[in-house]
C-alpha cells in the first residue's frame, strides 16, 4: 500500500497562501507562524516532487502545477471538513450504524432486548446470528462491531474478550416418559440421545462433557439447530442435553418436557464471551454486558424457572 502523497495541513496552508496572496496573510488566517507555513509548503513540494510556488516574485505566485493543485485541494479539504463534522455529530448524538453478532440462542432470547435498548443511540442496527467460528471471523474482518460467542477462540491480541455469563448443561426428557420412569439413568438407557451436530461449538462441548461423566449413548440422531431437536424430545422421540438459553429459545416445547439435572463439572457449563476490538466500542460493550445480565436476571431466569422447576438454581452464573 503506497503512502498518501499529501498532508492535509500542508494542503490547507498552500491554499491559504494562494487565496491570501502571501505567507503572512496565510499565517494570520491559520493562527500559526509564517515559518510554519513556509515549512508546510516546502514539505508539500518535497512530497509531490514539484515546484508549487514561484519565489522569484514578491509575493510568491503559484506555478502551473500549483494552480492545478489549488483547485483540486479545495474539494479535498471541503470533503475532509464534512467527514470531521459527521464524526463530531455522531459522537455528540447518535452512532450511524451498530453491527452486532451472536450465537443463535443468544440472538433469539437476549438479542431483542439489546436492540430495543440501543436503538435510541443508533440510526441503524444489525443483529446477525451464526456459529462462533463464523462470528469470530466476521469480527476480525470488521463486518461486525461486537460479537457474543460461546468459545474463546480468537488469538488476535487486538480482539478483547470478556466473560459475560455461563449456563449449565442439563438433560431434557419427555414429560410423559419422566412420569412413567422416575430413574433418570433408566430413562437415558431406554431413550435415544438427540445430539447437536459435531460441527457446532455446543455439539463439541456437550460431547466432551458426556465423555467426562461417562454418559455413553449410540449416535443415531444429530441436528444443527435447537428447534427440531427439542421438538422431537417434546414428541417423546428421545432425550437431549442442552442449556437453559436453548430451552428458552424453543420455549413452545417447555410444557411437554422435564429437566433432569446432570453432575456438576467445569465441563458442564457453556460460557458466553463478548468480543470487541481493542479501544473501540468500549461504552457499547459495557452497555451490552449490563443489559445482558439484567435480561437474564429479571426476565429469562425467573420465567424459565417457573416453567421448569427442576432446573438447577445455578442455571445461570456470572462468577
From TrEMBL:
It comes from the Bacteria. Pfam families: HTH_1, LysR_substrate. Keywords: DNA-binding, Transcription, Transcription regulation. The keyword DNA-binding applies. Residues 6-63 form the HTH lysR-type domain. Belongs to the LysR transcriptional regulatory family. This is LysR family transcriptional regulator. The lineage of its organism: Bacteria, Pseudomonadati, Pseudomonadota, Betaproteobacteria, Burkholderiales.
Amino acid at each position: 500500500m503506497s503512502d498518501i502523497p499529501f498532508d492535509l495541513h500542508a494542503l490547507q496552508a498552500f491554499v491559504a497562501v494562494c487565496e491570501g496572496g502571501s505567507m503572512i496573510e496565510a499565517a494570520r488566517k491559520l493562527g500559526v507562524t509564517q515559518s510554519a507555513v513556509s515549512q508546510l509548503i516546502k514539505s508539500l513540494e518535497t512530497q509531490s516532487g514539484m515546484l508549487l510556488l514561484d519565489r522569484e516574485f514578491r509575493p510568491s505566485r503559484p506555478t502551473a502545477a500549483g494552480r492545478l493543485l489549488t483547485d483540486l485541494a479545495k474539494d479535498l479539504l471541503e470533503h475532509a471538513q464534512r467527514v470531521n463534522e459527521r464524526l463530531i455529530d455522531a459522537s455528540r448524538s447518535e452512532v450511524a450504524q451498530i453491527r452486532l453478532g451472536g450465537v443463535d440462542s443468544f440472538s433469539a432470547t437476549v438479542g431483542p432486548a439489546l436492540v430495543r435498548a440501543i436503538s435510541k443511540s443508533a440510526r441503524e442496527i444489525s443483529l446477525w446470528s451464526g456459529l462462533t467460528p463464523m462470528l469470530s471471523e466476521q469480527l476480525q474482518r470488521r463486518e461486525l462491531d461486537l460479537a457474543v460467542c460461546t468459545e474463546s477462540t480468537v488469538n488476535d491480541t487486538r480482539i478483547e474478550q470478556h466473560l459475560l455469563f455461563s449456563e449449565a448443561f442439563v438433560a431434557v426428557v419427555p414429560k410423559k416418559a419422566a412420569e412413567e420412569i422416575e430413574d433418570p439413568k433408566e430413562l437415558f438407557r431406554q431413550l435415544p440421545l438427540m445430539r447437536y451436530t459435531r460441527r457446532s461449538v455446543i455439539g463439541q462441548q456437550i460431547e466432551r462433557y458426556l465423555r467426562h461423566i461417562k454418559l455413553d449413548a449410540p449416535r443415531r440422531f444429530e441436528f444443527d439447530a435447537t428447534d427440531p431437536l427439542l421438538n422431537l424430545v417434546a414428541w417423546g422421540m428421545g432425550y437431549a442435553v442442552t442449556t437453559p438459553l436453548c430451552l428458552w429459545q424453543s420455549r413452545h416445547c417447555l410444557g411437554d418436557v422435564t429437566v433432569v439435572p446432570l453432575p456438576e463439572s467445569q465441563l458442564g457449563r457453556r460460557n458466553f464471551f463478548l468480543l470487541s476490538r481493542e479501544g473501540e466500542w468500549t461504552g457499547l460493550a459495557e452497555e451490552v454486558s449490563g443489559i445482558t445480565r439484567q435480561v437474564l436476571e429479571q426476565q429469562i431466569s425467573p420465567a424459565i424457572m417457573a416453567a421448569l422447576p427442576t432446573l438447577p438454581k445455578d442455571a445461570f452464573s456470572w462468577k
